[in-house]
From TrEMBL:
This is Uncharacterized protein LOC104589096. The chain crosses the membrane at residues 7-28, 34-57. InterPro entries: TAXIMIN_1/2 (IPR055283). The lineage of its organism: Eukaryota, Viridiplantae, Streptophyta, Embryophyta, Tracheophyta. Keywords: Membrane, Transmembrane, Transmembrane helix.
């Protein structure tokens, strides 16, 4: 079903580039959150911050899939 949507992939690339930049930011936040949660395990907010960063890392793939599915076949 996704084979007939190559144009959606190409049009979605600029949005994926922005999402890629956000995912790199998420990777930095994840590393910092992981280090801080290891240093102070009593602060649960750092674990939530690391989970948010992981979702930012997965963002480019989600954006491309969402954009491809928005374009009719």
């Amino acid at each position: 079903m996704e084979d007939c949507r190559p144009l959606g992939f190409l049009i979605g690339l600029p949005f994926a580039l922005v999402a890629l930049i956000l995912s790199l930011l998420g990777a930095v936040v994840w590393v910092l959150g992981t280090v801080l949660s290891c240093l102070c395990p009593c602060c649960i907010c750092f674990t939530g911050l690391a989970n948010l960063a992981v979702s930012l890392i997965k963002l480019p793939v989600k954006v491309i899939k969402w954009f491809i599915h928005q374009i009719p076949c």
